[in-house]
């Protein structure tokens, strides 16, 4: 009996490790979903719930964390040597801040959501984009503007705080370009991903 329990614990640990590691090939969305079998189902569910496209949500998430589950902003250096405080409390796949995550959990009805859970994080990105549509009048098809609002917050976006930040506008353009690339790639594998029997779990 103890040996059986040990094997179960080992298997769960291995599966958890596999789940939390980022995908190896991130330039092609089909490669991502082939490696991370459950992610397509999660992304499709978020798309259906909030109306934000899978390519847009995945491009934003890539920019924020490179699909690292427990990502945090890098610490600032004190005297160029010693690790100092982090610039924000952003955390997880979507780099959601504490207050924004609390707002999401209350607004979406997902009180038990975790920022290092892909299912919850992709739902958060879709939800946030929906808020950007409502609060900042950004079309869900405009990935460039959606990312600016994602980074600056809706108040900041509405005040055009991004206008003087050329570096941020360049980042937003890269996010939009990645979204367009993911959009062109997804039809090549979407039928297979939707087919019966594709999901193992």
Automatic annotation (TrEMBL):
Superkingdom, taxonomy of origin: Bacteria
Keywords, sorted A to Z: Signal
Signal sequence region: 1-26
Domain Transglycosylase SLT, chain residue ranges per copy: 7-189
Gene3D superfamilies assigned: 1.10.530.10
Presence of the UniProt keyword Signal in the record: yes
Keyword Signal applies: yes
Protein name (Swiss-Prot/TrEMBL): Membrane protein
């Amino acid at each position: 009996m103890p040996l059986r329990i040990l094997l179960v614990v080992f298997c769960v640990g291995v599966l958890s490790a596999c789940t939390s590691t980022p995908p190896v090939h991130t330039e092609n969305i089909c490669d991502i979903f082939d490696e991370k079998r459950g992610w397509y189902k999660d992304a499709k569910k978020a798309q259906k719930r909030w109306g934000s496209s899978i390519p847009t949500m995945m491009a934003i998430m890539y920019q924020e964390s490179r699909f690292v589950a427990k990502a945090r902003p890098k610490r600032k250096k004190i005297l160029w040597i010693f690790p100092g405080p982090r610039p924000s409390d952003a955390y997880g796949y979507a780099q959601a801040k504490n207050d924004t995550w609390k707002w999401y959990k209350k607004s979406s009805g997902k009180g038990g959501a975790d920022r290092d859970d892909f299912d919850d994080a992709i739902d958060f990105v879709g939800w946030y984009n929906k808020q950007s549509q409502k609060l900042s009048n950004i079309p869900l098809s405009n990935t460039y503007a959606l990312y600016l609002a994602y980074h600056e917050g809706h108040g900041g976006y509405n005040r055009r705080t991004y206008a003087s930040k050329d570096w941020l506008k360049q980042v937003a353009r890269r996010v939009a370009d990645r979204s367009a690339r993911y959009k062109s790639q997804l039809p090549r594998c979407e039928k297979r991903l939707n087919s019966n029997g594709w999901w193992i779990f």
